[in-house]
Design goal:
Largest sheet: none
Radius of gyration: 16 Å
Shape: globular
Number of strands: 0
Order of helices and strands: HHHHH
Distance between the termini: 29 Å
Number of helices: 5
Strand content: under 5%
Mean pLDDT: 85
Length: 106
């Protein structure tokens, strides 16, 4: 839901499909590089660590690590925290997408 809402929100700022494709390097690539997938967030430069903590992919990867590596389940506090953050981010982007979508009345 969060990714779809983010896509709808960003598409309201684009006039053509090409402009939407140009958002990919701006939005997706930084999330992939700063999410902790390739290297731990603690090893990122101190300037980039707060940015990484805001990205939704960071919480998705952290939750998946807890489940797959540590054997956590839905009763784990860390997994519940990650799910709550992802749900909150999805809700924020849904509200932003709904507020910025263009409505045309015939």
């Amino acid at each position: 839901m969060g990714a779809v809402s983010l896509g709808i929100f960003l598409s309201t700022f684009a006039r053509t499909e090409l402009q939407i494709l140009q958002f990919i390097p701006i939005v997706i690539v930084p999330q992939a590089l700063l999410s902790g997938f390739f290297w731990p967030i603690d090893q990122l430069p101190s300037l980039l660590q707060p940015v990484a903590r805001v990205l939704p992919v960071t919480y998705a990867i952290d939750g998946l690590r807890q489940v797959m590596i540590a054997g956590a389940d839905l009763t784990s506090g860390q997994v519940l925290f990650d799910l709550a953050v992802l749900t909150g981010i999805a809700a924020v982007f849904m509200v932003l997408a709904a507020a910025t979508i263009r409505r045309e009345v015939a």
